[in-house]
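User: Show me an example of a complex going from sequences to structure tokens.

Assistant: Sure. Here are the input components:
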Amino acid sequence: MIRATFTGGNSLEWLFRYDFDTLTTIALWSIAAVLATTVILFVYTVGLRVATISSNQQRRSFLARWRDVFATSMLDREFAAQQTLPRVRRADRIDLLEEWNRARSMVYGSAVDNLIDLATRSGIPDLARRLFRSRRMRSRILAVQTVGHLRLPEFRAELGELVNDENTALSITAAAALVDIDADSGIALVVPMINRRRDWPKTRVSILLRQAGSERISEPMYRAIRSEGDSGKTYLLQFARLMEAEILDALVGDLLRESRDPGVLNAALKLVSGFAGVPRIAALTQNDAWFVRMQAAKVLGRVGQEEHLSLLEALLDDPEWWVRYRAAQAITTLPFLGPNQLRRIRLRQSDPFAGDILQQAFAEVGLA
Amino acid sequence: MVEDNEHVAYMLEFMLERAGYDVILAANGRDAQAAVTNIEPVDVVLLDLMLPYVSGYQLIGEIRDDHDWQYVPIVVLSGKVLEDDIVKALDLGANDYVTKPFRPEELLARLRRVVADNEHRALVR
């Protein structure tokens, strides 16, 4: 039973009266405690939110200041070497490292030297050295990337070991860092590993090879492809376009002459430039694997001469639709055939499939 | 400038403004299409190829088909490095092609050159 009376004045006075029964007193105190906790939590949440917003604003402004410094340094060597740099708080160091690496990945040439000068002045190498020993994988990867971008030769041996690490991100980052530090020895070590490390993202491998330059990668790539088995050859040929054109032509010619593996032949045919002719092209248009015949038809569409027309016509009644389709497309793209000659080719086809597929290919290029 | 990577866009914008350009940034292909439709032709378009919504290739075609923008020079700045990609962009009507990573001074020089060439051609037109 509640015997409390509300008298106005101090609104909490009733809470401290002692003429409630025990249960009511407990209930009232519980309500008061819940209300107080709610208020405290609310204030705490608002405080946290304000602190987060303020910290994000500080971080954004810190990054904006440094981005301006990086961008100016890319273009201005004197600025990179002499300009007073913004202060870096301990808490901002990782952000600075990440931002510097982003800027460094964007450019090459003299801008890289300027960025390295700037990094040296802002203490980035020391921070990278400390993080290199970190147990946290994210920090280690960032450090590995940084020592590569800074071209610190003292880490070459350790990076050589990290290339073999089971962690894909760490090992490919170490491979890229090795190439950054010393492209010749880095490529000599990394290229023979590409086939074994199929977990490495192909895009990262392509970027690494491209940054090393076609002149530098051609010989190691040639050797690696020649020494691998059929599966390895097929895999590595995906990156072969980054090699020098003359060496690639020679390699493709050799593979087309020597290999009997459909995967290798398919991959090699994709790389034919035509400057050195296409070895065994007649045999390849009759290969047992339909995708090799299809690829051969595509090649002839790009580099075929008049003597190859009969090979393409023979493919128009191939049992596989894709082979017929690519052969028909190839015929329409041959530069020495005009519209009237193309129509005559269609008329002389006795096989109805050959006539149909030619008609479709002609329609695609607006030829009735 | 049509560039979807926030960091690259910031750096480029800073560099271009420092070199004296007024920069209008479109962060995706759709914004770039809207810019082509709604604003006066600019001196030069610096274009990435891999963009959200509308590809850089499509934008090159649309700029070349636009009555007002057709003569605006386009410099492609892209991570695509294969010969086929470069040839495709130039065939579609790009005036120049620079691959990422890039040399900042070289990029600025190429922009200056295409702008100057276009001004010269405008006099002839």
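The lines above are the inputs; the final block is the predicted structure for all two components together. The mean pLDDT of chain A is 90.
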